[in-house]
Amino acid sequence: MSCASATLVVWTSGWLHGVAAADDVLDALHTWAELHEVVADDDGTATALDLPGPDEAPVGAALLLAALRRAGATTGRLVLPVPGDVRGLGGRGPLSTTALRAGEAAVLPEVGVGLVPRLVADGVMRWTVFDLPSASGSEHVSIAEAEHGLANAMRDAAAALVSLDVARHRPNVREEITRLSTAQTKLTWPDGMPPRSLRVLQRAAEVAAILTVAASDAPGGAVSASATQARDDALRPLSEAVRRARCAAVEEAVRVLSDQSAGRH
Question: Dmax of the chain from CA atoms?
């Protein structure tokens, strides 16, 4: 499945470019939690954006949108950090540490901030706004390259299921994979969302579902440490393909939404 940061990046970018309403952004976020609240990680960021600091009561997501517009934000970027790769988050610091723990972040380079979501209670998601260090370059992966990588990953994932003999241990494995991957279709996106981004996100969801099932399965041969390591090694490249594809799909969506806005003027 995708993530809350992807929803925030795409919808906020659409709103900043005039192709989505603020209420549309807030409605889309409800997929992830009924209530979204916002605080800044430090007093400096709080002052710069006129948001509550770490020791103050949080505010709603609508005030975050207003703060980003006042600050001059134009586009966002999705970052999905993993151990050993926190590119796009400005190196070591509170942002990268928290984003690595969450596995995701929404970055707005123009205003120098990164946002990380966390469920703090049932139905309550808190977005913490961090200062984004200036050295925050990230890897650019074209959507064509990501799509090609996913196609290879799909074949490798199918082969992994066979080699790990997952189906023998879980008779309903195909239904389980379908159920996990179709959760992606429940997400809503702006009207101008490019079909290619949607296709890549859906394919990424399918590979991610296979990964979830394969990683949680306990094949008869995976009782030893070496067998478990072999399984993890087989699945790791597939996970990387999913990560790259999701970031590329979101980046392409932001680009297209921006172009649509420019074409209106």
Answer: 62
